[in-house]
Amino acid sequence: MGWLKDETGLEKNSANYTPLTPLTHLNRAKDLFPHELAVVYGSQHRKTYAEYHDRVTRLASELANMGVKPGDVVATIIPNLPAHAEAHFGVPACGAILNAINTRLDVGTVAYILGHGEAKVVLVDTGHLALAKDAVAQMDGPAPTIIEVADPSAGLDATGEFREYEDLLASGDPDFQWIMPQDEWESIALNYTSGTTGRPKGVVYHHRGALLNTYGQTVSWRMTLRPRYLTIVPLFHCNGWCHTWMMPLLGGTVVCCRDITARNIYDAIADEGVTHFGGAPIVLNSIVNARDEDRRAFDHIVEVFTAGAPPPAATLRAIEPLGFNVTQVYGLTETYGPATECMWKPEWDGLEDEQRYEIKARTGVLMPMIDENTVMDPESMKQVPMDSQTQGEIMYRGNGVMKGYFKNPEATTEAFRGGYFHTGDLAVQHPDTYMKILDRSKDIIISGGENVSSVEVEGVLMMHPAVSLCAVVAKPDEKWGEVPCAFIELKDGAEATAEEIIAFTRSKLAGFKTPKQVIFHELPKTSTGKIQKFELRKEVSGSG
């Protein structure tokens, strides 16, 4: 298929073929952008690409000196700090596999991840040393060596209990030869899913997928040279959507941020000229509702990728006039982060606001590193009609899909059933192939035999002027089986009653979609800003 009749002498060789890997981006940037800023963290850490490459090389060297071999796992428990960006290159540069662990997990889960991944070394932020020590103490198998990553600027000086990161770099060999992959299918990262039901699964990325993701997102984000990227997406979440691997391709600057607040976001834009960031809709909401004293003026448009949930139209309407252009993207840990984008079309420019924001809330179309994404019937594995009404499951196929789940062939086989990756997310598909998420399959509310999309109800609730955040879940009901229950956080200083909220919703939705109960309190959230609906379901079912 597609071969010349005589291919003699046309074989792969070192001159015409090298395995794809994002490591090549930093090697190139060292020569192309040696004196330009690569990584920034406040006033105390401002490293050029020459310095960035040197630090990464020393890290790789010293990990190898510690006995880390190609194929071993090196874990991290670090916020979005320079050392974490360096680990994204330094760990694979010694042939190892990076396991960035969620800093907000409980001790038992961290112990499980360290053991399941068989980490040889773990780099730990001083502020999370207690978590790491307790997790190591709970492990049954061999424990990883702890390297402490101090952050004096945050008041977290080295404890002296463990070898410190900067001392490790000082011992490294600046002439260490990076161990590049021999096969682009080699693993570059191991990322564990949130594990809200059962043990988290270890999602394995390969060098090829990581590199193609950096190219694809550059196109989707309409990026040019020297962007300034603010790290809001945690580097333990799909490796920060691969953005840290992407920045050297463009000679961009990674602006690190330990604490994600509206003030810090505005400061980074005003002081560091941040041009791009990614984040969940909750981040957009914090910007919209920022106090006047936290806001800063800036004179450029900031491009934002948002994911985790469809952004409410009310949030989009409020944030765009502030200087932010929002593109909704959608993906999962299993797809290296974003894999679908809501690419904007010029013919939509003149639409009324309500129509524009409805379109912006669509999941969109496949990004360049994905071969196919579509909505299918999960039983028949047939394409559902693209009629904006027929529900199906979002499925993917292409180089932006994981290798599979580590040490879990049964789950891998099930996830890839029928030759597609099954997301578990429900959507409809429009005639132009754009998709719109309805819900996670487990979040659909079935009330009296009718399907209620919690996302649709949440979109209406967010239009209420007093509502800051909301989540809708199914509440057991003797008559209807399930009914919608709304949890709401009000804006500072705002007031509203449950009756008022219900009446507002009923004025815009069918009666069976209207929440039958409204509960006001702070919503439980993950480290990436996603609302933990499973906790809310426990609350209304009485099992919490």
TrEMBL record:
Family named by the database record: Belongs to the ATP-dependent AMP-binding enzyme family.
Name the record gives this protein: 3-methylmercaptopropionyl-CoA ligase
InterPro entries cross-referenced by the UniProt entry: AMP-bd_C, AMP-bd_C_sf, AMP-binding_CS, AMP-dep_synth/lig_dom, ANL_N_sf
Reactions that this protein is recorded to catalyse: 3-(methylsulfanyl)propanoate + ATP + CoA = 3-(methylsulfanyl)propanoyl-CoA + AMP + diphosphate
Ranges for domain AMP-dependent synthetase/ligase: 32-406
A GO BP entry: fatty acid metabolic process
One MF term in the entry's GO annotations: ligase activity
Keyword tags: Fatty acid metabolism, Ligase, Lipid metabolism
Keyword Protease attributed: no
Matching PROSITE patterns: AMP_BINDING
Pfam families: AMP-binding, AMP-binding_C
EC number: 6.2.1.44
UniProt cross-references to PANTHER family, sorted A to Z: ACYL-ACTIVATING ENZYME, BUTANOATE--COA LIGASE AAE1-RELATED
Location of the AMP-binding enzyme C-terminal domain: 456-530
